[in-house]
Design goal:
The complex is a heterodimer of chains A (353) and B (285). Chain A has 353 residues and is mainly α. Chain A has 15 helices and four strands. Chain B is 37% helix and 23% strand. The chains are: A mainly alpha (353), B alpha/beta (285).
Chain lengths: 353, 285
């Protein structure tokens, strides 16, 4: 069905009015093709269906109760902000498991800076490049050793986990004395604008920026190329090593950001922050239509994937699934989504072009 | 070096005494190679003869361990594919030429994307110019948005070559462009090479299949065991003679039995002699 639209290449025209029509037509073609090609087609559908199911089956339709929606909007960005970075990294063909440990490590450093008397705003500005350094270490190890990133970041995950456990003695540290509830810093990261939690705005804002970079920027073009065919990308003059390192640094920075956002929301550092994020982030990104082999994925899909995972968890609990059994259903759902994604993509590929 | 003129200033690329080691393997043993402006040169030889290594040196992928490279008469150092591309040397690799998940336009502009004032990709320009570039190759594809994974092998070669000439390459190196293609696709690719020549772009055509290269090349260079074996105009030789030499890997007895081509064969023999000298010299060091 799309093949027809894609087929009519229209030469430029001299008449301004006609030209406008041609431009609009071309833009629409481009959009359709991109949506199809980037695998972001079935994800919105799954997103809506998930919401409808939970709305229909949660007792008293409690799922769409404003308080529940607000809770989802506040909780999702913790994982979500990191998952956006993981999505970009996976499009470029790499993994990062170490986020589960980099996040609490960043949170610990943040707490230590606050305790040393540093203003939270200054600590915030310092933490973002510190997070990037964690990413830089991962990135350098991956491109220098040539080992699978799964192994490298599994190792760095264990490494930083040990460090943060020993350094903190596993004790939570309250940061309320430095960032009281309702203080400007707390407002900036975890406040509310009208009924909308600021966390959600941060999440959407970061998704928007990364989306523009990914889909409309040169770096984004290189990220897709690196994930699609690394050798070709290199032969065409893309510095694939640099691209990978930059992606790892983006993930690291976003970890630092999520760490501070979560610590501020909890009012404390906890050594257990970020545990399980590494696999949940991958699940969210894959549900969002991203290929594990790289080269395929979209920012809209990734953002929706994050919501789908969070909504599943929340919705299942509302459906009175025992809390400790939720993962079983999430596991089933991930497999189901990926199968649906693959089927629809294959069908579209068969019809198009 | 080459049988064709180097005196008339038409020499585009000239490589002299190129050596390349991979660990203990001496892959290139003082190879000489040249391409004139607008000339199509076939580069042949058995597996492991050093063809790929030689063109990877010419395209900046590998650095030579010894030897000189001249481009348009000036000595150059090729440290990366970027250096080679800046000079106007583009390489099209068969297996790894394009990114399958990306559109034709994005592939053609990969690494050299035009941007708008906002620093974003100038997509309308990319689309328009890629269609023009494809048309100049005689390639009619439906849309610049089509994914490369949807194209046939021959079309992919066309896109890769269009990419090269769009950026005003002076020399296009084609690494096994006809391998694993159907007969019809091979014919397409050979047509692309003729289009290149019509536009005054020089080409190096690496192949195992002499029949393919014979229909488009002006001159054929044969390597064996990292040395020059033959350098001859296509019109001065035959497919049978060359395939015989390639199979044998040496001129040896071939020269006397092929009297008509003795002049060319003698030149090639002289070249082999220089190569052997070089290796001896190398051993002394």
């Amino acid at each position: 069905m799309e093949a027809k639209g894609a087929g009519s290449y229209l030469p430029p025209s001299d008449y301004p009015a006609k030209r406008l029509v041609v431009d609009v037509e071309r833009k629409m073609q481009r959009r359709t093709i991109q949506n199809l090609s980037l695998g972001g087609f079935s994800t919105p559908l799954v997103f809506i269906i998930t919401i409808l199911i939970f709305w229909a089956f949660s007792p008293g339709h409690r799922f769409l109760d404003p308080r529940n929606v607000a809770a989802i909007a506040k909780l999702t960005p913790d994982l979500g902000v990191v998952a956006l970075g993981i999505g970009v990294l996976m499009i470029c063909g790499e993994f990062d498991l170490s986020i589960a440990s980099v996040l609490p490590t960043c949170s610990f450093i943040f707490t230590q800076l606050l305790m040393a008397g540093v203003s939270p705003f200054v600590a915030f500005v310092l933490l973002l490049p510190i997070g990037a350094v964690f990413g830089l270490i991962n990135g350098l190890l991956v491109v220098r050793t040539g080992l699978p990133s799964f192994i490298i970041t599994l190792s760095t995950m264990l490494f930083w986990r040990g460090i943060v456990y020993v350094a903190s003695g596993l004790m939570p540290i309250s940061i309320l004395p430095y960032i009281p509830t309702g203080s400007p810093f707390a407002q900036m990261l975890t406040g509310q604008i009208g009924p909308v939690p600021v966390q959600l705005l941060w999440f959407l804002g970061i998704a928007l920026v990364l989306g523009v970079v990914l889909h409309f920027g040169r770096l984004g073009n290189w990220i897709y190329a690196t994930g699609s065919n690394q050798d070709a990308a290199r032969a065409m003059g893309v510095d694939v090593r640099l691209v990978k390192i930059v992606c790892y640094m983006i993930v690291g920075s976003l970890c630092a950001f999520a760490a501070m956002m979560q610590a501020t929301r909890l009012g404390s550092f906890a050594a257990t922050q970020g545990i399980g994020f590494e696999l949940k982030a991958i699940a969210a990104v894959v549900v969002g239509g991203t290929s594990l082999r790289g080269g395929v994925g979209s920012m809209v899909g990734i953002a929706l994937g994050v919501f789908i995972i969070q909504i599943l968890e929340n919705g299942l609990i509302l459906l009175r699934v025992p809390v400790f059994g939720v993962n079983t259903f999430i596991g089933l759902a991930v497999i189901l989504f990926v199968i649906i994604n693959n089927l629809t993509n294959r069908q579209l590929a068969g019809q198009g072009f | 070096m080459s049988a064709t003129s180097s005196a008339n200033g038409q020499e585009l690329l000239k490589m002299v005494g190129i050596h390349k080691y991979f660990g203990r393997v001496h892959a290139l043993r003082g190879v000489n190679f040249s391409v004139n402006r607008g000339e199509v040169v076939g580069l042949c030889g058995d597996n492991g003869a050093g063809k790929s290594t030689l063109i990877k040196v010419a395209s900046g992928y590998h650095m030579a361990d010894a030897g000189q490279i001249f481009f348009e008469g000036r000595e150059v150092k090729l440290r990366s594919p970027k250096d080679a591309r800046a000079l106007g040397i583009e390489t099209v690799y068969q297996e790894q030429a394009l990114c399958p998940h990306l559109s034709i336009a994005r592939n053609i502009f990969m690494g050299r994307e035009p941007t708008t004032v906002l620093g974003l990709l100038d997509q309308s320009r990319m689309n328009e110019e890629s269609m023009e570039a494809l048309a100049s190759m005689g390639l009619k594809l439906r849309s610049p948005h089509a994914l490369v994974s949807a194209l046939s092998g021959g079309q992919r070669q066309g896109v890769a070559i269009a990419r090269a000439i769009h950026f005003r390459a002076k020399l296009v190196i084609l690494d096994e462009p006809t391998i694993a293609l159907s007969v019809k696709e091979v014919r397409e690719v050979l047509d692309f090479v003729r289009h290149l020549k019509d536009q005054g772009v020089a080409a190096v055509f690496i192949t195992h299949t002499l029949h393919h290269v014979f229909s488009v090349a002006d001159r054929i260079v044969v390597l064996a065991h990292g040395c020059n074996l033959v350098d001859i105009r296509t019109k001065d030789t035959t497919v049978d003679e060359l395939s015989d030499i390639i199979a044998r890997g040496t001129l040896g007895d071939a020269a006397p039995t092929h009297k008509p081509e003795s002049e060319a064969a003698a030149a090639a023999l002289a070249q082999q002699a220089t190569c052997e000298e070089d290796t001896e010299a190398e051993q002394e060091i």
